[in-house]
């Protein structure tokens, strides 16, 4: 059962410390409460654009961020995004959920589509993430981990039979590549974060 705050207008879905306490509750920011009951038509695994294929200031190789979009109509979706930023070192993750007026974000470089196999609702996906404890995640010291997090969430969706069987492996193989901004890709090792209870 979802926490009552799932249907509030203000979204908090993270392990950040607020007022000295851990909050592990659900809700919505920027999403109408009715979105929770919308059927997910398709899942999109999205690599966001790194326009100039740039690395970071520390000399790390080029990378970019990945997100999961849940298509609820031909013109709208719910984007689920695990990002760092909490804790004294800024590595504890938080999940941002955003309503989009498009099937997936226009900032995408590469997108991988997975049909919904069941009558899955947005609420079901959020519940699955919560029940599996996927909201409790710490990024690596390099602030990497979104690919690892998404590979685990995609495995959860596959195990629930909400996407075609074998989709988790397809997603994992896509996440092991750095997709260049113009065309093509090169292998990229997956740096893992840490899930905690």
TrEMBL record:
InterPro entries: DUF7770
Pfam families: DUF7770
Residue span, DUF7770 domain: 44-195
Superkingdom, natural source: Eukaryota
Annotated protein name in UniProt: DUF7770 domain-containing protein
Organism name: Xylaria hypoxylon
